[in-house]
Design goal:
TPR-like_helical_dom_sf, disordered N terminus, SEC-C domain-containing protein, SEC_C_motif
Length: about 325
């Protein structure tokens, strides 16, 4: 499903079934694929089936990349169809575990907010913000929803601005300010007969919709293929014809960063990087009834990896590790 496909035009049951079949075919990508399948199950109203997919992932053991994210999604889903006690128990467990990833915090806090547990939602947002942003000079983009969610809940509670609210205002880039977006009285303007009030509300809703569309499109980036050094050596030794595409590892790294910057300069949004492996590439070539020596397969391989949820967003934050695997911060490596 493309991020710009209207929800009403999607057969969520069939899309979920397709993703589940793909997960069976590519077990190494099962986590990303089954999470998307569970989302389609939820959109189709089959919440017990979504819970079964979350349980399937959690039963897979220590191989999960983000078990707290899966637990958070399961809790939010359970609460929506009457399993409040179990959902609360999972949420309490996540808060006690204090994961370093913002996503589980956002999901459980918004679940509490959606069920009018505003004080608990505020405490959860605040715990996460203090854990992940204390002593940080520049908040990573992934933490923005925590700042915005906390700001929204505090507006509903009538709390005055604090330092974290000021930080939320500083990273908010939409033309409509957070105070206006999160005004609890906005809903009343929708019933107004004043054309000016209605027009102002439409502008605010458009601003919010733009932010939602941007967030929804992030898991589906335009991806560029990166080979780690050992994989590239194995690839070019096994398929010498590809040395024309990859004359050296250093040249490959420079070309990857240059390609991404060129795409960004052209206005292409939501860029990402996928890491190739020789066994995976050989299996892809076999599925296409083609030789791995055929360089025209490389872009298709990158697109396939991205569709399977293997892409990492580019560019990283300047303080994050560089995508090339050097161990240096991106701002001191390829982000210079």
């Amino acid at each position: 499903m493309r991020p710009d496909t209207p929800a009403e035009n999607v057969d969520h049951i069939n899309e979920a079934a397709r993703l589940e079949r793909t997960a069976d075919r590519y077990p190494e990508d099962a986590e990303a694929l089954l999470l998307r399948a569970a989302a389609h199950r939820e959109l189709a109203g089959d919440r017990p089936a979504a819970t079964a997919l979350y349980d399937r992932l959690l039963a897979s053991g220590p191989d999960l990349d983000d078990p707290y994210l899966v637990r958070a999604l399961k809790a939010a889903n359970l609460w929506e169809y009457g399993h409040e006690a179990e959902a609360r128990a999972i949420i309490d467990g996540i808060r006690m575990a204090s994961p370093r990833d913002p996503a589980p915090w956002v999901i459980v806090a918004e679940a509490l907010e959606a069920h009018d547990e505003l004080e608990q939602a505020h405490e959860t947002f605040t715990e996460a913000v203090r854990l992940l942003l204390s002593g940080v000079d520049e908040p990573p983009r992934a933490t923005y929803p925590l700042l915005f969610g906390r700001h929204r809940v505090r507006r509903m509670l009538g709390a005055s601005h604090d330092e974290w609210d000021a930080l939320a205002d500083s990273v908010h880039k939409l033309p409509v300010g957070l105070d206006e977006l999160h005004d609890p009285k906005r809903v009343w303007s929708l019933g107004s007969e004043n054309p000016e009030e209605l027009e102002a509300e439409i502008l605010r809703l458009r601003a919010e919709l733009g932010a939602y569309r941007e967030a929804l499109s992030r898991p589906f980036p335009v991806a560029v293929l990166h080979w780690p050094a050992d994989e590239l050596t194995e690839l070019t030794e096994a398929y010498p014809d590809l040395t024309e595409e990859y004359p050296s590892y250093a040249a490959h790294l420079e070309a990857t960063e240059a390609a991404l910057r060129e795409l960004a300069a052209s206005g292409t949004p939501n860029l990402g990087i996928v890491r190739g492996t020789v066994p995976s590439y050989e299996a892809f070539a076999a599925s296409e009834l083609a030789s791995p020596s055929d360089s025209s397969l490389l872009p298709q391989y990158a697109t396939t990896l991205a569709a399977r949820g293997r892409a990492v967003a580019w560019p990283p934050e300047r303080a994050e590790a560089c995508w090339c695997g050097s161990g240096r911060a991106y701002g001191e490596c390829h982000g210079v």
